[in-house]
Amino acid sequence: MHPEHRFDPQDGLDVFRRLNRYMNELFGSQDEVLTNILRSIEVHGLPPISVSPATGKLLTMLVAISGAKRVLEIGALGGYSGVCLARGMGPEGTLTSLELVEDYARLAQHHLEKAGFGSQVTYIIGPALESLKTLVMDRQYFDFFFIDADKDNYVNYLDYCIQLAEPGAIIVADNTLAGSGIGSPRALERRGEIMKQFNETVALHPQLDAMFIPIGDGVTVARVKE
């Protein structure tokens, strides 16, 4: 390759960021419900780490396309992603949301109720690994999973999701681009390495078909083989 044609990762990152800004403006600016949730999260002092508008739209579409009726969310925060998931599952669907912080879960539930999904969502408070273990012991099964909690445990969450999965279930994980650390020098940082390991685990897992989608902060989508 001629030197002046050599690929610069920073150029690719700039294009990626511009495309994400465009998608987020396109899908987020006119959604009053989700915009109000983001304002409420800021007012209540929660960290500004909700999924991007484009990622939220993808979640709604994936739930709807898959026909999922039993959805499990790992990490509720203020309810932004919960509303996106609930929008896709229809009136017969149920959402079980695991959240470590009780105040976060309370705010999320308030937002789900305002959005019209209060009767369809259940919050389980406490460390997610303990809650997942209990769900396995209770023989609960789900057909859609969304992982968006502490990154150190992503591989552990994945293992539990597979145990809880109906055949053909969809598993989605957010932030798998690790703040644009994957594929660049920043991948040497701890979070980048964690996400690299997670993505490789998903890609090579014998029970999963998977794909990485570069929107938001990166979304990994996998289907549990039947």
Automatic annotation (TrEMBL):
Keyword list (alphabetical) reads: Methyltransferase, S-adenosyl-L-methionine, Transferase
Q: What is its EC number?
A: 2.1.1.-
Look up keyword Transferase and say if it applies. Answer: yes
Which SUPFAM superfamilies does its entry note?
Answer: S-adenosyl-L-methionine-dependent methyltransferases
| Gene Ontology molecular-function annotations | methyltransferase activity
Source species, domain of life: Bacteria
Give an example GO biological process: methylation
Q: One Pfam family from the UniProt entry? A: Methyltransf_3
Q: Which InterPro entries match?
A: Cation-dep_OMT (IPR050362), SAM-dependent_MTases_sf (IPR029063), SAM_O-MeTrfase (IPR002935)
Report whether S-adenosyl-L-methionine shows up as a keyword of the record: yes
- Report the protein name in the record: O-methyltransferase
Q: Which organism is it from?
A: Geobacillus thermodenitrificans
